[in-house]
Design a protein that fits this description.
single chain, 2 domains, 14 helices, 5-stranded mixed sheet, Double Stranded RNA Binding Domain, 18 strands
Length: about 475
């Protein structure tokens, strides 16, 4: 759908307008000519009083409000546009004009100065968020405060994300960088040479500067796709250079049961891994086969039980809602089977179009009403089983315009997930396709291509440490920059 939006607004607001359009209509594109819909925006500023007129064909909306800052002005314009688009497309959005992936950050910002009731009113009236979602955002943030305290207490520490870009096979939902275990151009051993050099250099720097590590998270790909020998080599390197008494949480994604065996689980326990993921995504064997998964639901259950036998006490399991061919009854069956296993963490993901996945451009019903029904069912069922929602994020083109929610038993919150989603501290990424995001939003992205990473990781490593040192010098020894939600 082609949309022309004419008005006296800047390029930054243009991006926000485009995102809002695409939230209503996934294929909406801003054009200058031959539009399907022609929208005009006139903004009149009179000191702190702003009047916004928006019209298209016969629809016309005017709103006048007092604003205190540019952020208020921006959201007033989006609010009026939202009301017009709601009439045009005859629907409303659960999150109103909020199109970013981190709506809970907004709640954190307001928590420092307002009551929950005041925040709820702002979410509903300023940002057009539905009351149920406003309540959910507040519940998630309050659970974070209640169970781990104020996340700003970790601001002068860092977390470490480590990527293992190998997998036994690529399943069609995945958009992450991954290579087959038998990739001929770079062996697991050669990759670990480079990765462990990064781990050693960063670990030594942090110890020298007395910067504590809050959490370590090893993802992928599939970390347990490493052979037993290579997995132990990685675990030894992490223990030697990163693990100490300050690390509060150490997660390794096991993910796929076809990469896990008894010896690997023993190694995870031996080297003090405190949290793992065993991710079924679905308990439907037909879906697993169609998605290019090489294991069965029986394998998932057996692997989970083996992990328990080896003494691993904090396990996460993911489900993805909206996989092609699955229905409401399928989702309920998968959730019930996860609950029978009784993991500490259950994460409910809703399918989103990912550009680098094999599902990209397939016909997916993103508006299916069953998604909201299942969200409500899962929320109530998990609460009844004493799981609380503790982190939340959204994605572009997510099914049902919903969100991904992490649930846990109280005391088993994944601290890394919270710190990463809320951007509460610097996350240092190590390995192929790992991103380093500093607390001032500065990004350093390691190459996605494995060969490019192998040839250039030293230069990227130098950039990370140089920028950390620059931040320390700029902030009197601190590595944290104050920032607000945008």
């Amino acid at each position: 759908m082609k949309v022309k939006v004419t008005g006296n607004y800047d390029d930054r607001l243009k991006i926000a307008i485009h995102r809002l359009l695409r939230a209503f209509k996934r294929n909406a594109q801003l054009v200058n000519e031959n539009p399907d819909i022609d929208i005009n925006i006139i903004i009149e500023d009179n000191l702190n009083l702003v009047t916004v007129n928006v019209w298209s064909n016969e629809e016309h909306i005017t709103l006048e409000e007092a604003v205190k800052e540019d952020n208020d002005r921006k959201y007033l314009i989006l609010k009026v546009l939202y009301k017009l688009l709601s009439k045009i497309f005859m629907k409303e959005l659960a999150y109103g004009v909020l199109t970013g992936i981190r709506p809970t950050k907004l709640v954190h910002m307001y928590k420092t100065k307002l009551t929950d009731d005041e925040i709820r009113k702002i979410l509903i009236n300023k940002y057009m968020v539905k009351e149920a979602k406003a309540n959910l955002l507040l519940e998630v943030v309050n659970n974070q405060y209640r169970n781990i305290g104020n996340i700003t207490s970790f601001k002068d520490e860092v977390s470490i994300y480590i990527t293992i870009p190998f997998c036994p096979s690529r399943w069609v939902y995945c958009s992450f960088t991954s290579y087959p275990n038998n990739y001929q151009r770079v062996s697991q051993e050669a990759y670990l040479d480079a990765l462990l050099a990064e781990i050693e250099t960063v670990g030594n720097y942090l110890r020298e500067k007395k910067i504590s590590i809050t959490t370590i998270y090893v993802g992928g790909g599939t970390p347990t796709a490493l052979s037993e020998t290579n997995l132990e080599r990685l675990l030894i390197g992490i223990k030697k250079y990163l693990l100490d008494n300050h690390v509060r949480e150490y997660t390794i994604e096991c993910g796929r049961p076809d990469t896990i065996n008894e010896l690997k689980l023993q190694l995870l326990k031996q080297y003090n891994v405190s949290r793992i993921s065993i991710n079924p995504q679905t308990f439907n064997d037909e879906t697993l086969r169609s998605m290019n998964r090489t294991h069965s639901t029986c394998d998932i259950i057996n692997t989970y039980r083996l992990a328990r036998e080896k003494g691993l006490e904090n396990i996460n399991m993911d489900l993805i809602i909206g996989l092609p061919g699955e229905k409401f009854e399928t989702y309920i069956d998968s959730l019930n089977k996860v609950l029978t296993l009784d993991p500490e963490n259950i994460t409910i993901h809703y399918l989103a179009e990912k550009r680098n996945s094999d599902l990209h451009n397939q016909i997916i019903d993103y508006e299916n009403h069953e998604y909201q029904h299942f969200f409500d069912y899962a929320y109530q069922t998990l609460k009844e089983h004493r799981y609380i929602p503790y982190y939340l994020y959204r994605q572009k083109h997510i099914t049902g315009n919903l969100e991904n929610v992490g649930y846990c038993k109280v005391g088993n919150e994944c601290l890394y997930n919270i710190l990463m989603i809320e951007e509460a501290q610097t996350i240092i990424g190590l390995g192929c396709n790992a991103s380093t995001k500093f607390s001032d939003y500065h990004l350093i992205l390691n190459p996605k291509d494995l060969i490019s990473y192998m040839n250039s990781y030293k230069g990227y490593l130098d950039k990370k440490l140089e920028y950390l040192e620059e931040m320390r010098n700029r902030n009197g020894g601190s590595i944290y920059n104050e920032h607000e939600y945008e």
